[in-house]
Amino acid sequence: MKTQLENIYESAKADIEKAQSISDIDEIRLKYLSRKGEFNSIKKGLKDLSDEDKRTIGALANQITQDLECLLKEKHETFYQKELNEKLQNDRIDITLSGKYIPEGKVHPITSTTNEIVSIFQNLGFSVISPELSPEVETEYYNFDMLNVPHDHPARDVQDTFYLKGIPNGVLRSQTSGAQIHVMENQKPPIKVIAPGRVYRNENINSRKNNFFHQIEGLYVDKGITFGDLKGVLNEFIRLYFGSARPTRFRSSFFPFTEPSAEVDVQCIMCQGKGCRTCSGTGWLEVLGAGMVDVNVLNGVGIDPEIYSGFAFGMGVERLSMLKYAIDDIRLFFNNDKRFLEQF
Ligand code: PHE
Hints:
344 residues, alpha+beta, BirA Bifunctional Protein, domain 2, two-stranded antiparallel sheet, 40% helix, binds phenylalanine
């Protein structure tokens, strides 16, 4: 048995000498040292030996196995280093190759303008209402009734508003003002919120009008809120949004849900008030609608107008974005032309 072991040892050693690669080494290990390998079949015969022989032959077998392991490991290491060096030699990086172009995503200008306006109002103490208080699929109740819009008001016409089949009195909201009602139904004053979102109108599409666009609604209700507060907040907004104190003009106007109401103009960005095509020669650009929350609206949601007063405003995101970046066609925002979108 001893010679048998020594013979196997010799032939394994010879095989290791001859090995050329890591895979040769792995094969040799399988052939001699694995469970089905040659050593194991001999070790199985150990149990038939006398105690004395078991001890000496067993020790020898262990010694030989250890020696072989050692040799295999050494060889393996040599081949590993060799293969690694070859790889490092051959796989050298070619720094003269031109780089791969990785297209970069951009934030859509409507999103970035919205974010900018929202953050200005947040700095002025307004918080953004939660989305469930500002749904795009509305009912006439929130979009019109509770906002004091009379039943024969032209805005209710199918010419102007998208009505929904299958939802009783369902409409795609034509303004974000319905959010005012949701908030006041759910929250007691003081209320100081903004609601950004998409609105829909049944318009003929042209360079200034699209059948959906984005608005940001604002509402501030508390004790003692005045028109002076409204002017202060909106003037500050315009200063922060356009980057410098621009002349503004509050024009008397009408909205069913505010009284008094105003439309706010800023001096034309293009001609500095001299009069040009953008401002149709007037020197002014209308940027938002606003006013003091109508008593009927406050009564409707159960807020006592003897104790509380408030102001509301609504502005068009596309319009503000177009003015700031001198964009002359609203459709550019929505036809996904990368040449346009990549500029932001
Ligand atoms: N909802 C109005 C519009 O869409 C704007 C507005 C909002 C006016 C709040 C007054 C107060 O034109």
